[in-house]
Amino acid sequence: MDDFSKATTTAREFITLSRHVLNQEGTFSADAYDLSALLGRIALAGKMISRHLSRAGLIAGALGVTGEVNVQGETVQKMDQFANQVFIRAFEQSGLVCRLASEEMEEPYYIPENCPIGRYMLLFDPIDGSSNIDVNLAVGSIFAVRQQSTATEHAGTADFLRSGHEQVAAGYLLYGSSTMLVYTLGKGVHAFTLDPSLGEFILSQESVMIPPHGSTYSINEGNFWQWEEPMRQYVRHIHSQPGYSSRYSGALVADIHRILFQGGVFLYPGTMKHPDGKLRLLYESAPLAMLITQAGGRATTGTQEILDVVPEALHARTPLIIGSSEDVALVESFLGS
Ligand code: AHM
Ligand code: MG
């Protein structure tokens, strides 16, 4: 390796997440510092969750279910609750975020000491892919940041019920064979890898673009007979084509990560019993839609762009078809949209 390459490698290792956010904003304004600090807090939560996950099998009582059922009617895992608390603690006394909404909380969580200076709201899914936790498979966290308009405890949910275009930042953490943080501020998509020896997220790929077409389709085919006929026809068509591979991990973040880098499409359609599917708009589908759109892909419900959907409730669900633009268009051609 010549001196120049050595120097380049070293320079890259200094591109930490907080520095990257400041560079992205291109200023040293209060907004830029707030966003940098905010992403830093999300990264801190991610590091704590990653640490806990990596030792979960050794910590008494870390795995398994709590015995409770969340607002979605789903079984709560101990790790879901732990990760939810980690995000809350990471933002207490931060002066950044006034209210948080998550999959695990029926109502938004209010942090009075951060109001009114906390100008942002955080929406998050603390552990995405919960069914993977107890078997040591990849899981993730999903987040979105929006501007706060009403800084009171009794503001209700009205300022959360806006379209995905109002997201200021969005991204995910992937707890896989390494821990990664992928984010967008609406200026491209950037991927960071946690260097455990430094305890820092270091830039691993800048301005990620999703290929326009990929060979992966990612859908829970166990639901085949629950879908409407056009979705079944699409999947039959894929089966009849050479060159496609099915990949479905049980964690949306992991499946989307593969598709972001290698192309393809992820689908969680509605079923006859549940026409809106399973995934929640505000802290699952909309953040990932912002990210994939920024990377040059698409995200739709099948009839509407995900980013245009205005939810009626905090925990509203939407069908999700997301990924490479050509692959999403192919699904749409079967749905007649
Ligand atoms: P969760 O946030 O409660 O884990 O639910 C979301 C997950 C996604 O990560 C995944 O794609 C999907 O649910 C899997 O659901 P299913 O088992 O119905 O295919
Ligand atoms: Mg989830």
What does this 3D model show about the protein?
By secondary structure, the protein is of the alpha+beta class. The protein folds into 2 domains: 203 residues, Fructose-1,6-Bisphosphatase, Chain A, domain 1; 120 residues, D-Maltodextrin-Binding Protein, domain 2 (3-Layer(aba) Sandwich). Helix content is 32%, strand content 23%. It has 8 helices and 15 strands. α2 packs antiparallel against α3. The model has no long low-confidence stretch (mean pLDDT 92). The site of magnesium ion has 4 residues, from β5.
Annotation keywords:
337 residues; 8 helices; globular; binds magnesium ion; alpha+beta; Fructose-1,6-Bisphosphatase, Chain A, domain 1; eight-stranded mixed beta sheet; binds 2,5-anhydro-1,6-di-O-phosphono-D-mannitol; 15 strands; single chain; 2 domains; D-Maltodextrin-Binding Protein, domain 2; five-stranded mixed beta sheet
Q: Count the helices. How many?
A: 8
Strand content: 15-25%
Q: Give me the CATH architecture of the largest domain, please.
A: 2-Layer Sandwich
Straight-line distance between termini: 53 Å
Largest sheet, in brief, is: 8 strands, mixed
* Ligand types: 2,5-anhydro-1,6-di-O-phosphono-D-mannitol, magnesium ion
Please report the total strand number as a whole number.
15
Helix-strand makeup class: alpha+beta
Helix content: 25-40%
Radius of gyration: 20 Å
Provide the CATH top-level class of the largest domain: Alpha Beta
